[in-house]
Amino acid sequence: MSGNLLRIESLVVQFGGVCAVNGLNLEIENSEIIGLIGPNGAGKTTAFNVITGMVKPTTGKVYFLNNEITGKTAPFIARSGIARTFQNIRLYDDLTVIENVMVAAHSSVSYSFPEAILGIGRFGRDERRIRIKSMELLEMMGLERLASEKADSLPYGSQRKLEIARALALEPKLLLLDEPVAGMNPAETSDFAEFILKLRDNMTIGIGLIEHDMSFVMNVCDRMKVIDHGVEIAWGDPQHIRNNQRVIKAYLGEG
Amino acid sequence: MVKENPTRDKLLTYMAVAALLIFLWYAESHFSQYSLRIINNIGIFIVLAVSYNLINGIAGQFSLGTNAFLAVGAYTSAIFTLSPEEKIRSFIIEPMIWPLSEISLSFPLSLLLAGVVTALIALLVALPVFRVRGDYLAIVTLGFGEVVQVVANNVVSVTNGPLGIKGLAPHTNIWWSWGICIFTVYCVVRLINSSYGRAMKAVREDETAAEAMGINAFRIKTLAFTCSAFFQGVAGGLLAHLITTISPSLFTFMLTFNLLIIIVIGGLGSTTGAVLSAILITWGSEALRIVEEPFTFFGYDYSGIPGMRMVLFSIILILVMLFARRGIMGRNEFKWSVLLNRFGRQSKSEARTS
Q1: How far is A241 from chain B (nearest CA, A)?
Q2: How far is CA B352 from CA A167, A189, B260, in A?
Q3: Which of A249, B78, B114, B218 could join B237 via S-S bond, C-beta 3.0 to 4.6 A?
């Protein structure tokens, strides 16, 4: 069966009378990069919100590692291995850069609340482990020198990177990126494409991404799904999508 | 530039605590009863401010229930320290119900019990409230404060009703109030610097993003609220045995309001700010008593207006809101390196000028 990492079956999401997602199917395999593209309002972010448990689907099922996760809470899904970033960056602004990453390691903490309050037992060792791990992630994203800055004082591009470092601190098996290169210049974008490919190869995680930057998507994605008004209009490798008439029509309108 | 240095900072902290203890020891034998009372009050208010800041400032959940928790703590510990004979003597309207009328515990045990009972009640409040998002906590805790007062007034066989509980032994001295004060600050600071504290801050900053990172916001908020209530309950026990008489009218909403002023002036979210501000406001409200008493100012006879202190406090609060919206400390915490750098810079500039 395909979709061993993530499988979405005939997903429908309605907000009042609006049907944001209408019968979407999606499969993501291990170490695969899947692009989810489509015009504004196509339901891409809603699909991400359903996968991560932030929106309850009207009907349809979501399976992660062949276990059904439909309707489970966001923290539960995050702990089981799906991490995400947000379209409009959502960092913990008043926390430092390293604290932002350390927050995501909370689920891996082994010390109990009394141990934390009294600073005894596993507390010291575990805190050091989290700090070292978080620092490594910051180094990976090239943010180590900003570790003690407040998150909201970072420039835009670094904030996007920090969000990814934070997501990786969850040690996810599936990483969902919502418009990761929005606002980046072409040089930054191509660096980022390289980074994504390296990430996939080194950490063997599946990646789902929403993006409007076509050349970026075509470069990094193994397969992509095009949706419009909540309905799938194309599915396949970049070459196939590039020449698909329905996709061209959805993006450019009818000629 | 002096850098952070854990060993040195730890040593300096121990020295500061030792200095504080020496000061308290000196104060105990040399200060007047009035001054000692203020020092006791400051200790208790630091406990209250630091724990109140935990839920309001750190976890970002707007609670208005401190007066209720203080009342629960005060009544719990008072009920358990009175001896059975005293209970018969003071419960004149209705005798106290049985097991309570026979039980008499030591002061420390009653304080612990006060904390535990308050925390359990806070848990009961938290369970339904934190299931929903939004500002329900403020409404519910505000109402809860009234409920506690009504209960204290009407469940006569437990609380002695409007007469209150009188003749408590004055167990609270500066060692108790400041011992618990130091313990509370230690615990809260540790908590804030642990993963649980970071999770609380993450929930305050962005609940959705916190949940997306695997943090169970419901549990973290309940934890912060219950933990805060525990310390407030203990502070209630301390307060009861300091003033030795408690009645329902003592625990009005004004108490919560004063604490709110304290943590806002200190800097919402800063434990250091809460401590500084608790000292400043508790001491200041005593020092400002002069404006309520008659005095002559450049030949003008001022007759003294009762309640003038509150007017001054309001003005101070308005000024803080206008010119220093983030309070004394903002969200910064005290660090030895910052203090040492400031001293270093001063002594250097002094050396240059001389």
Answers
A1: 31
A2: 51, 52, 44
A3: B114
Q: What is residue B318's predicted lDDT score, i.e. its pLDDT? A: 86
DSSP 8-state symbol, B246: B
Give the pLDDT score at A222.
93
pLDDT value at position B170?
A: 93
Q: Which residues does chain A have within 8 Å of residue B267's beta carbon, measured at their own beta carbons?
A: none
Nearest 5°: phi and psi at B156?
-65, -35
Picking from A161, A211, A171, A154, the residue whose alpha carbon sits closest to that of residue A36 is A211
Q: Is the CB of A92 inside 8 Å of chain B's CB atoms?
A: yes
**CA distance linking residue A122 with residue A116, whole number of Å:** 9
pLDDT at A131: 95
The domain spans of chain B are 6-353
Return the structure tokens found at B157. Answer: 């066989």
**Which single residue is written with the structure tokens 């108790």?**
B176
State both tokens at B123: 């848990």
Q: Which two tokens stand for residue B71?
A: 């009342």
b vs e for A142-172, b when ≥16 Cβ sit within 10 Å of the residue's Cβ?
ebeebbeebbeebeeebbbbbbbbbbbbbeb
- Per-domain boundaries in chain A: 93-157
pLDDT at B345: 66
Judged by DSSP in three states, A149 sits in: coil
Q: Which CATH architecture has domain B6-353?
A: Orthogonal Bundle (1.10)
d(CA A36, CA A42): 10
Question: For residue A159, what are its two tokens?
Answer: 């904030």
| Residue A254 pLDDT grade (very low, low, confident, very high; cuts 50, 70, 90) | low
pTM of the model: 0.91
Residues from B in contact with A at Cβ < 8 Å: 187, 190-191, 194-199, 201-202, 205-206, 208-217, 223, 269, 331
Q: How many Å apart are CA B18 and CA B271, to the nearest integer? A: 20
Residue A103 and residue B201: Cα distance in Å, rounded?
9
Measured between CA atoms, how close is B198 to chain A, in angstroms? 6
Alpha-carbon span B113 to A248, nearest angstrom: 71
CB of A173 within 8 A of CB of A66?
no
Residue B223 has its nearest CB partner, among A74, A92, A113, at A113
Instruction: Report ipTM for this prediction.
Output: 0.91
A139, pLDDT greater than 60: yes
Q: Characterise A142 by phi-psi region: left (phi > 0), alpha (psi -120 to 50), beta (else).
A: left
Residues of chain B under the 50 pLDDT cut: none
Burial class (CB in 10 A: 0-12, 13-18, 19+), B184: buried
What is the Cα–Cα distance from B342 to B290, expressed in whole angstroms?
A: 35
Distance of alpha carbon A188 from alpha carbon A1, whole angstroms: 37
- For residue B332, the model assigns a pLDDT of 85
